[in-house]
Amino acid sequence: MLPNTGRLAGCTLFITGASRGIGKAIALKAARDGANVVIAAKTAEPHPKLPGTIYTAAEEIEAAGGKALACIVDVRDEKQIGEAVEKAVSKFGGIDILVNNASAINLTNTLDTPMKKVDLMMGINTRGTYLTSKICIPYLKQSKVAHILNLSPPLNLNPVWFKNHCAYTIAKYGMSMCVLGMAEEFKGEVAVNALWPKTAIHTAAMDMLGGSGVQQQCRTADIMADAAYSILTKPKNYTGNFVIDEELLKTEGIKDFDVYAVSPGHPLLPDFFLDENPDDLTSKMEALGGSAAFKGGQQAASKAKSQVEDTFTVIGRSINEDTVKSVQGIYQFVLSGAEEGTWYLDLKNDKGGVGKGESPVKANVVMSMDSEDFVKMFTGKLKPTMAFMGGKLKIKGDMGLAMKLEALMGRMNSKL
User: Fold this and answer.
1) Strand pairing partners for 358?
2) How far apart are CA 176 and CA 195, in angstroms?
3) Are 148 and 191 in contact (CB under 8 A)?
4) Is residue 165 within 8 Å of 108, Cβ to Cβ?
5) Does the annotation count 139 as an active-site position?
6) Across-strand partners of 343?
7) Beta partners for 16?
């Protein structure tokens, strides 16, 4: 890992969304130098599903050697941001670094994304980054350090990153466009850069998106903290860069990246928005055990045709009252390809059941995918998270129930 140098000692960092995850990891890295950290986040009371509050984060920061100021902040609220910045300046004498980490994610297509979700992502990701930067810049311009770091991706216009979650991509790219514009606008006064992970990072958000077991395919937030530290300790003429964590840390002399892995040696899930060539996403999914539709040919298609019904038969035998009680959802599968058809899985009523055709009761979740990929998914050869991220699996309805299904698949794999 990248060692601390003490170069952020006495610096004041204003970090949005720092109560958990990557934001907190960056805060703790800076705190080990003796930095002051403003935790600007919404979570003041413990969340039933997500760990950490602004106050528990403050305790960890001070235990690591830094000074902390916990501020309740919704980055969509101009007044709350202004008040938090004033408190920071009053307590620490100024602001040297802004980290725009707060973000909202909703991976649904255009017709299935409610406008309140669109507004949330635009409000937190793009507007929140722009607004917080706007309020902090007058103070940053007075600092010798003067850095803004946005946790956002390089601007990749490959349509694959738009077609399945257009609203999220627009909102996230808005953060990156702030880098593009502000780096040029404030050149020589404030460094403005973006940082993005090469692989999935294990956070509470990733657990919610990927379900059980996804952590094995992730790196810890420490890799992002080390990369952020490298950027924030550079001179302010280092600006306008879209940095990938692993690539930067290689230039810092880091060779052993297993130290950042949740499960060293386990294949890693590539993150969004990174494809070295137009076909690279396909090759990545193949390398991580992706759909045989990429490789299959007629023989694989024929095999899938005889397996879908068998798969549903085994699924039906695997469910019981406890399964139904714990899941409480109805799933509709719309399959295309070699064995086109519609099936349902009832994990809500009585002892549950499966059947061909439309569910007699309205489904909570509708999953659309190739029949061959369906078989691979239920036999553990294709991770649902990878199928979804790669556009092979489309989901409509309750995402929470969709995630519950992955845990159920893990218990079925040994029987299929």
Assistant:
1) none
2) 9
3) yes
4) yes
5) no
6) 333, 356
7) 40
Query: In this structure, are strands 191-196 and 365-370 parallel, antiparallel, or unpaired?
Result: unpaired
From the candidates 139, 168, 173, 344, give the one annotated as an active-site residue.
168
CA–CA distance, 37 with 27 (Å, rounded to integer): 6
Instruction: Give the DSSP letter string of 81-121.
Output: HHHHHHHHHHHHSS--EEEE---------GGGS-HHHHHHH
Extract long-range pairs of 230-236: CB within 8 Å, 24+ residues apart.
230/2, 231/147, 231/149, 231/193, 231/195, 232/8, 232/13, 232/30, 232/97, 232/145, 232/147, 232/149, 233/5, 233/7, 233/8, 234/191, 235/191, 236/145, 236/146, 236/147, 236/188, 236/189, 236/190, 236/191
- How confident is the model over 125-181, as pLDDT tens digits? 999 999 999 999 999 999 999 999 999 999 999 998 999 899 999 999 999 999 999
**How many CA atoms are closer than 13 Å to the CA of 5, on its beta-carbon side?**
11
Provide the CA 326 distance to its chain's centre, in angstroms: 26
* C-alpha closest to that of 376 among 403, 345, 338, 323: 338
Can you state the angle between helices 54-63 and 21-31, rounded to 10 degrees? 30
Report whether 5 contacts 33 (CB < 8 A).
Answer: yes
Least confident of 20-34, 346-360, 391-405: 391-405
Strand, coil or helix: what is 72?
Answer: strand
**Count H helices, E strands: the chain?**
16, 12
Q: Nearest to residue 228, comparing CAs of 88, 23, 9, 62?
A: 23
* 277-332 pLDDT, tens digit each: 434 444 443 444 333 322 333 333 334 345 788 888 888 877 888 888 888 999 99
Amino acid at position 86, single letter:
E
The pTM (predicted TM-score) of the whole model is 0.71
Residue 247 exposed, middle or buried by CB count within 10 Å (0-12, 13-18, 19+): exposed
CA distances from 33 to 157, 188, 232 (A): 38, 25, 12
